[in-house]
Design goal:
Layout: H1 7-15, H2 25-36, H3 41-44, H4 47-53, H5 59-69, H6 73-94, H7 97-116, H8 118-129, E1 134-136, H9 139-142, E2 148-150, E3 153-159, E4 175-180, E5 185-188
Parallel strand pairs: 3-4
Antiparallel strand pairs: 1-2, 2-3, 4-5
Helix pairs in contact: 2-6
């Protein structure tokens, strides 16, 4: 026999508490909390450590123990999240269909294109640094592991993780390694021809 217990029901079974929220309210509060960082350890304490330290048995014991240790934490967290919810409320009233269309266009057209074509951005950035022309590789060059040419130098572009892979691939041109971060692409390369 299989028995499935939804997470909300687990909470109710263990604590006797059941919460009901308006549709989408928890999603908005979660997003507001992510932005406001209202439940970070510096506000509410390190929960994984606190629950280990706690010696009681019931939800009432836990609530009493926690509130004695962190008397203002719930209110401080609620204040931070509520302030962010109010900012969301203000922001939502200013979003119209044109704004949504612009955001969808950026996501589908611009970010997709930039995400898939970022190798050209890498070539262009390096070429600008060394005041050289660049071009993308021809299909024949691509078959040799070349992704582009900067000045007269053919280069390959690989993620940093490529360094740790044991591949039988031989690339006879300088490699530009990249690390794609959330807000930037970090490049690492050594092209002796450019170090004059």
């Amino acid at each position: 026999m299989k028995l499935k217990i939804p997470n909300a029901h687990v909470q109710e079974l263990l604590t006797g508490k059941k919460y009901n929220y308006l549709k989408y309210a928890t999603q908005i509060m979660n997003l507001a909390n992510q932005n406001a960082q209202g439940t970070r350890p510096k506000i509410v304490g390190q929960m994984s450590d606190l629950i280990q330290e706690f010696e009681g048995k019931t939800i009432a014991d836990w609530e009493k123990w926690y509130v004695e240790k962190h008397p203002d934490a719930i209110d401080k967290a609620a204040d931070k999240v509520w302030a962010m919810v109010k900012l969301f409320q203000d922001g939502i009233t200013k979003i119209d269909r044109d704004t949504v269309k612009q955001w969808i266009e950026e996501l589908v057209i611009v970010k997709t294109f930039a995400g898939l074509k970022f190798q050209e951005a890498i070539l262009k950035a390096v070429s600008i640094k060394y005041n050289k022309e660049y071009r993308l590789a021809t299909p024949q060059e691509e078959s040799k592991g070349i992704d582009g040419v900067i000045g007269d130098v053919a280069v390959s572009i690989k993620p940093n993780t490529y360094k740790t892979k044991a591949l039988n691939e031989i690339i006879d041109v300088p490699i530009i390694f990249y690390d794609k971060k959330k807000s930037e692409i970090v490049l690492e390369f050594d092209i002796p021809e450019f170090e004059i």
